[in-house]
Amino acid sequence: TSLKLVKHLMSVKSELLVYDISFQSDVTLQKENHKVRDVLMLVLYKFFGELYDKNVFIDVDNYYEFGYFDFDTVNVALYYVVENISKYVCPDSKIKVHLNKTNTKNAISFEMRSLHVDKTEEGLIFHKGYSGKAAKQISLSGEGLGIYQAKRLLEMNDAKIDFVAGEERFFIDSRYYSDNVINVELPLSQGH
């Protein structure tokens, strides 16, 4: 379908951008004000087909605030985040995306039932080459680069990401899931 083609092209663009950034000593970002929800929705649309196939409903808050960041690198970072979410989310579930503004940041919070991650792995999943224990056990682990790259790209924009593992485990279709949260913080707009 055309959504799969767009997703594939976005994946190629992501890989090329990360490759370019990896081999440049001083990267110049084009930071501007962007509507946070619009940038997020551009990424989410690419995964609607996969989420639909898993019978996963996604609910995104309305939000009209701007953030100050480089569009390309944040777009790629969010792509990696949502790609991981779509890979590990529990079928027949819901993803709630909260968007809000504080005095210091734009906050995006992805709340979902997804593959269980041990509390001891919360920080490790951002390390290059790391794949979670549960993902390895069911042969769903990747190369451990997506979330690592997402964190790296976000940090280039003075943004942050963290993962909060749910403690309670639910056994569904021969896998353990938990109510996990991924938090992304983007800088507030400048002069807007």
How far is the N terminus from the C terminus? 39 Å
SSE run:
HEHHEEHEEHHEEE
- General shape: globular
Specify the helix fraction band.
25-40%
Quick one: biggest sheet? 6 strands, mixed
> What is the strand tally?
8
**Class derived from helix and strand content:** alpha+beta
| Mean pLDDT across residues | 89
Number of helices: 6
Report the sheet-strand fraction. 25-35%
Enumerate the spans where pLDDT stays under 50 for 5 or more consecutive residues. none
CA gyration radius, whole angstroms: 16 Å
Can you describe what's shown?
The chain is of the alpha+beta class and 192 residues long. It contains 6 helices and 8 strands. It has helices at residues 2-22, 36-45, 48-53, 71-88, 133-137, 146-156; strands at residues 31-35, 57-60, 66-70, 94-101, 106-115, 160-164, 170-172, 175-186. Strands 2, 4, 5, 6, 7 and 8 form a 6-stranded mixed β-sheet that branches. The chain has a two-stranded antiparallel sheet with strand order 1-3. A hairpin with a 2-residue loop joins strand 7 and strand 8. Helix 1 crosses helix 4, helix 2 (36-45) crosses helix 4 and helix 4 runs antiparallel to helix 6. The longest helix has 21 residues, at 2-22. It is globular.
